[in-house]
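[#protein-structures] MJ: dropping WsaF C-terminal domain-containing protein here for a structure pass
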Amino acid sequence: MINLLKNLYIAADYKRSAASLNHTLRVGGPASAGTMVVLVYRLEPRSGGLRNVARIVNALAGHLGKSIQLYIQNPEKTDASLTREYGFRADVASSLPTAADLYVTTSFIFSLSLPDLLAKFPSRWNHIIQDYDELFFPISTRYYHAAKVKVGPEAFIASGKWMKLPGRTAYLPFPVDPAIYHASPASAAKRDIDVLFFHKPELPRRCALVCEQLAETLLVARPDLRIAFYGSNLSKRLTKARVEHLGALPSLETLGNVYRRSRVGVSFNLTNPSLIPFEHMASGCMPVSPYVESPPEFHLPGIHVEGTLSQLSEHVLARLELPDLETQALSLYDSYLDQGYLCRKEDFGRAVIEAIETL
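AK: finished. structure tokens for WsaF C-terminal domain-containing protein:
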């Protein structure tokens, strides 16, 4: 059964890559005056990256005095509900308007098609790096084609400090919502999860199998550890790890409650900075984010940990021995907040405007 699921996933991803490389824009008529068009290849469910895209384009449109048209290359029945869930203040366009004031892409695959449109109808073009971007796949067919693009966006918008991007870049702070991610619940919560893993087999950069291996290594050393996986409903079907499977949590509020139950939060993300460790620490959960030879501009002190499985296990176990773990996590959060690497959710709109004005 596991082999069947694996083969189906590989086949689906292969077909998806082929389809994206061969896509054709559904071009429509002229845009209304004062329109900003946001291009999304597909509205993926449970995407923190797309949620962040919505925050960015909403703030950008408000600052520029533009209305937003959301163009989805691969429309699905769930688009209307996901548009509302992610908070896009936009009308969904069935075809791509021409001659808009600004085009904002959220997938680098559009660099294969949008230049032809802009050659006929010149306009500004910005690109937001988000979860499903081809530039997140450093060893893949999609990345190969993205890296060969010669005519691309004028500027990039990225969350967190990124490795070098091929153009002017506005680096945004990560927005953390203190109403959801905090360490002081209305009713005192017991931290009954020793180690919480973000486990999402759908995203290769999240290293789900390594999470399982690390969990098993920890349990060999400490059989009494309380370990939980969250993030995907595939988790329980694909793994035999002796852990609690929380699956895809139903709401951000539920997620915040789980973080407040946890002492250490482990999340892999080998391609770019991630919001998850910051939400962990804001909730008093000590983040551990393994990495591999991270470039200096990507390295996050106090969060990133390098090493073998046994070394990662030793690091986590040493953290669990600290009596003031929650206090240290909150202090780390305050440090990144003071550095401007983070901001509170209510300050994000202003941070977007300040960053964009530097481009």
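MJ: nice. The chain has a mean pLDDT of 86.
AK: one more thing. The chain has two domains: 15-173+348-356, 193-339.
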